[in-house]
Amino acid sequence: AQSVAQPEDQVNVAEGNPLTVKCTYSVSGNPYLFWYVQYPNRGLQFLLKYITGDNLVKGSYGFEAEFNKSQTSFHLKKPSALVSDSALYFCAVRTGANNLFFGTGTRLTVIP
Amino acid sequence: KAGVTQTPRYLIKTRGQQVTLSCSPISGHRSVSWYQQTPGQGLQFLFEYFSETQRNKGNFPGRFSGRQFSNSRSEMNVSTLELGDSALYLCASSSEKTSGNSYNEQFFGPGTRLTVL
User: Fold this and answer.
1) Residue of chain A nearest B106, judged by CA positions
2) Strands (E), chain A
């Protein structure tokens, strides 16, 4: 069975500091991993995905994620946080079918 | 291209009623998926449609149903509403191919917030 864990409900970081939002996964077979962001009263916006290839994936708005197969992790990172990055972040794994299994979400707050 | 649109944005219904939500995917996208988002259960997959056929289904009761039209627009219906059906219902489209293994990202609409009283 597929599962995704986001161990932190809340992450606080000062503006300008690097940020990390953690995600670990458990899947049978090759993992297809995604990060989405949700702003208040909005749908989800795609940030980046890992399907195959380089372990470091670059995405929208300066975000990147590192796929680590041995640690079964796919942490989201950004070198310098902006106040506008404050939002709810979801890690997701795609199952064999075309549906996403989401983690519980991590609320990121960037403090000015 | 216009994004995924969902109508209505907000709905208030009472227990026992039924509701129909609508989703228009991005032009050219043939796959439409529906998700339910609640504070307690998070984001859960409802079903996916591709070329007017339900291709995948999540673990929801039969009160939840959907369909897709030839223009790829999709509707979902919830009958005999319960209080627990109050949620944000999100629709997503992707440019999946027939085989379903192109692993393209899904693009989400703004959602329909359903409140059941």
Assistant:
1) A46
2) 3-5, 10-14, 19-21, 24-26, 33-38, 44-50, 56-58, 64-68, 73-78, 87-94, 100-102, 106-111
CB contact under 8 A, B42 and A101: no
Nearest by CB to B105, from A34, A43, A99: name it.
A34
Distance CA B101, CA B113 (A): 31
| φ and ψ at residue A68, rounded to 5 degrees | -125, 105
**Closest CB to B110 among A43, A102, A105:** A43
Q: What is the pLDDT of residues B78-104, one digit of tens each?
A: 999 999 999 999 999 998 765 555 678
Residue where the block lists tokens 């449609």:
B49
- Which chain B residues touch A100 with a CB distance below 8 Å? 33, 35, 43, 45, 106
